Each structure stands twice: as structure tokens, then as C-alpha cells.
């Protein structure tokens, strides 16, 4: 079974594939798919999430292969721009490593490039989170803490309760030990690496690391914003995506990150 995909915008136009963060689904890209409706927009529900919550999460590599198959089957000319945030950013990095031939331009936000420093605590953290993740009070509290419209808060809560806990645990284990592959040094796909400026240090450092690794990459920070800045600053995020995929100047509000000296 193919992963569930929200298909909007303009059929026949250049395609943009959107890849969401953990616990979310294609709904989180509504501000971007509305702003970029002149493109053919494909927002994928990743395994264990949303309408794909019955699909087993195997690995980043397996998921990237499924997304590449969707691009070949449904995107204009079998190629697409890709936008990935958090979990979706890791999938996009894996696409760059293994399926660069189906990619035009890529935007990645909120990823790491080296194993997380607190990974030894991961089993304890996962056990605790698995116990409370689908409790209504916790889900509603999480939804209210995010800068979302009431409609999007409802979608977030529904998706979090429906998420496969097996997928949640597998994804976090893989993310905690993620190491950016040296193969990325040979990938020519133009790639924009971003993060909100209020992200953790390991994510901020990854912006400059990846900008240095990928031959045709640039790094940018969104000042004053956090991890989910596509919903915190939807207009800025959408303008950034449009500029990058059309090879236009990026918004001035974004802070340039040096590939050599970091943020």
C-alpha cells in the first residue's frame, strides 16, 4: 500500500513534496500548500502517522524509498522539489543520499548531523513518553502549547493519538543515533538547510555542517523562531520555499549561516 498523500495545487506544474515531523502528518503543511497552490503539492503521511498510521515504520532508508516511488509515480516528469522538517528533514537527507535523481531542489529544517548527546537516556525517555503520549489530557496540552489555529490544534491532537507508538520508538532511536553520511559530499542537488534561531545547539550546528558538506547548499536561520517555524511564521517559510525552488533571492529576514564558522 502506498503512503497516503494529500494532493493539492496545480496538476502539471512543478511538484513539491512536503514531509512532516514526528507526531504530525500532511496537515501541518496547510499554510504552505495554500501559499504555493500554483505548484503541484504532495504532502505525504509518513509510516505510522496520520492516514498511514497502519503502515510499519522500518527505517529512514525504507521510507525514503517509498517517497521516491511516490515522486516517480505522481510528480510532474517524475521529479520533485522536497521540503522536510524534523523527521521529514531526515527523510529528505536520506533521499539526497539514495535517490537524488528524482530531486530538483530541497529544503531541510530542524535536523542533526551527529548522534544526540543524551542518547543513553533514550530508553527511559521513550518508556515515559509512550505511557503518556496518547492520553487525552497530555495531547490536548501539547496542542494548546503550539502556535496553531483551533482547527490545526484539533488535527494535531487527533494525529498524535492515532500515531503508532511502535513507529514513535523506532523513529526516535534512529534519530538519536543519526550520522550524516559522507556520501552527501558528492550530491549536487541544490539544498537549503534551515532552522529556527531558538533551536537546540546541536540543530543550529547542523545547519553550518550540512551547508559545508553538500556542494550546492546554503544555510539560513529564522530569527526568533523555534522548531516548528513553518506554522510559527508561515508566510516567511512559504516565501523562503518559493524563492529557493525558483532560484530567486531568499527573504532578507533570514540570517545567513557560514558553512565554516557556524551560526
Describe the structure using short key phrases.
eight-stranded mixed beta sheet; 263 residues; alpha/beta; Rossmann fold
CATH superfamily: Alpha/Beta hydrolase fold, catalytic domain
| Mean pLDDT, all residues | 88
* Structural class estimated from helices and strands: alpha/beta
Strand tally is: 8
Silhouette: globular
Total DSSP helices: 10
Describe what this molecule looks like in 3D.
This protein is α/β, with parallel strands linked by helices and 263 residues long. It contains 10 helices and 8 strands. Strands 1-3-2-4-5-6-7-8 form an 8-stranded mixed sheet, with helices on both faces. Strand 4, helix 3 (87-98) and strand 5 form a beta-alpha-beta unit. The protein is globular and about 45 Å long. It starts with a strand and ends in a 6-residue tail after the last strand. The model has no long low-confidence stretch (mean pLDDT 88).
Could you outline the blueprint of secondary structure elements for this entry?
Layout: E1 5-9, E2 15-19, H1 30-35, E3 40-44, H2 60-74, E4 80-85, H3 87-98, E5 103-109, H4 122-132, H5 136-144, H6 150-162, H7 165-176, E6 191-196, H8 201-213, E7 217-222, H9 229-232, H10 234-245, E8 255-257
Parallel strand pairs: 2-3, 2-4, 4-5, 5-6, 6-7
Antiparallel strand pairs: 1-3, 7-8
Amino acid at each position: 500500500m502506498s503512503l497516503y498523500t494529500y494532493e493539492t495545487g496545480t496538476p502539471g506544474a512543478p511538484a513539491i513534496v512536503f514531509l512532516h515531523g514526528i507526531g504530525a502528518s500532511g496537515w501541518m503543511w496547510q499554510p504552505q500548500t495554500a501559499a504555493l497552490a500554483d505548484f503541484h503539492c504532495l504532502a505525504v503521511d509518513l509510516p505510522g502517522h496520520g492516514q498511514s498510521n497502519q503502515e510499519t515504520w522500518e527505517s529512514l532508508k525504507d521510507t525514503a524509498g517509498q517517497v521516491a516511488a511516490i515522486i516517480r509515480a505522481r510528480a510532474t516528469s517524475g521529479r520533485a522539489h522536497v521540503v522536510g522538517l524534523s523527521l521529514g528533514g531526515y527523510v529528505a537527507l536520506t533521499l539526497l543520499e539514495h535517490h537524488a535523481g528524482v530531486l530538483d531542489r530541497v529544503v531541510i529544517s530542524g535536523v542533526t548531523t551527529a548522534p544526540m548527546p543524551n542518547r543513553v537516556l533514550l530508553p527511559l525517555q521513550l518508556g515515559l513518553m509512550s505511557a503518556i503520549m496518547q492520553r487525552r489530557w497530555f495531547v490536548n496540552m501539547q496542542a494548546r502549547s503550539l502556535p496553531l489555529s483551533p482547527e490545526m490544534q484539533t488535527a494535531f491532537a487527533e494525529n498524535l493519538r492515532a500515531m503508532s507508538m511502535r513507529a514513535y520508538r523506532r523513529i526516535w532511536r534512529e534519530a538519536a543515533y543519526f550520522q550524516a553520511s559522507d556520501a552527501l559530499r558528492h550530491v549536487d542537488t541544490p539544498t537549503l538547510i534551515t532552522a529556527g534561531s531558538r533551536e537546540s545547539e546541536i540543530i543550529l550546528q547542523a545547519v553550518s555542517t550540512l551547508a559545508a558538506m553538500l556542494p550546492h547548499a546554503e544555510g539560513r536561520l529564522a530569527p526568533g523562531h523555534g522548531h516548528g517555524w513553518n506554522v510559527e511564521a508561515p508566510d516567511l517559510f512559504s516565501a523562503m520555499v518559493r524563492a529557493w525552488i525558483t532560484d530567486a533571492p531568499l527573504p532578507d529576514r533570514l540570517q545567513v549561516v557560514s558553512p565554516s564558522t557556524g551560526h
